[in-house]
Amino acid sequence: MKNKSLIFTIIAVIVIGALIFVLNNYTKSAQPSPSQVAENNTPSNNEDQNTSSNATEQSEPKIGNQVGDIAPDFTLKDLDGNTVTLSSLRGKKVILNFWATTCPYCKIEMPALNQFIKGHKDDTVLLAIDLGESPSKVKQYLEGKGYEFTVLLDTDLSTIYDYQVQFIPMSYFIDKNGVIRAISNGAMTYDEIEEYYKSISQ
Predict the structure, then answer these.
(1) How far is CA 106 from the centre of its chain?
(2) Alpha carbon distance 123, 89 (integer Å)
(3) Cα–Cα distance for residue pair 56/157, rounded to 1 Å
(4) Residue among 154, 201, 157, 156 at smallest CA distance from 182
(5) pLDDT tens digits, residue range 8-27?
């Protein structure tokens, strides 16, 4: 029995040694030479062009809800049933303000928004987007307040989803090219609106 186990041990050692030798030689032959590494790391003209074109593509804004992104497009109805599409407002500065009649901070902010838009009507559009409430409820809430901005109804909450609005009021300042330049979380004073507005006035 001892002789048999000794023979098996010797055979196993020989087999393992042979495997190590073969694997070691295969690894060495598979490694590229320094000249091959240099050649592989030197980009061809086509690779240069692809890299530069990829850089150009990456520098273009993507559609999203963060500063520097192109604002997601939408089409919503106002209180009179007219449709408003965001992309149709290119060439104008746009402020999106998400709100609801049940939001106390929205109530505090709205007079400041109205005061602001009165002085910037020529090249700026303020869209106050109500979140999921009925037209009758919104009309009743706004009655007699004399607000001069456009109120839109996000009845199915698709727009709030696209902009990932987590609390209100929340405002997006969008430049003439449709790019988001600033985001305000919470109620703004008149002076704060003016400060945010500078981001889309450059």
Answers:
(1) 24
(2) 10
(3) 34
(4) 201
(5) 555 544 544 443 443 344 33
User: What number of H helices and E strands is found in the chain?
Assistant: 7, 7
Q: What's the rounded Cα separation, in Å, for the pair 95 and 109?
A: 14
Which residues of the chain register pLDDT less than 70?
A: 1-59
Cis peptide before 169 (omega within 30 of 0): yes
Contact call for residues 95 and 123 (beta carbons, < 8 A): no
Q: Kindly write down the DSSP assignment for every residue of 117-161, as one continuous string.
A: HHTSTTTEEEEEEEES--HHHHHHHHTTS---SEEEEETTSHHHH
159: its two tokens? 């727009």
Place of tokens 């901005």: 149
Cβ 187 vs Cβ 104: under 8 Å: no
Q: What is the pLDDT of residues 163-202, one digit of tens each?
A: 999 899 999 999 999 999 999 999 999 999 999 999 999 7
b/e code 88-112 from CB counts within 10 Å (16+ = b): ebeeebbbbbbbbeebeebbebbeb
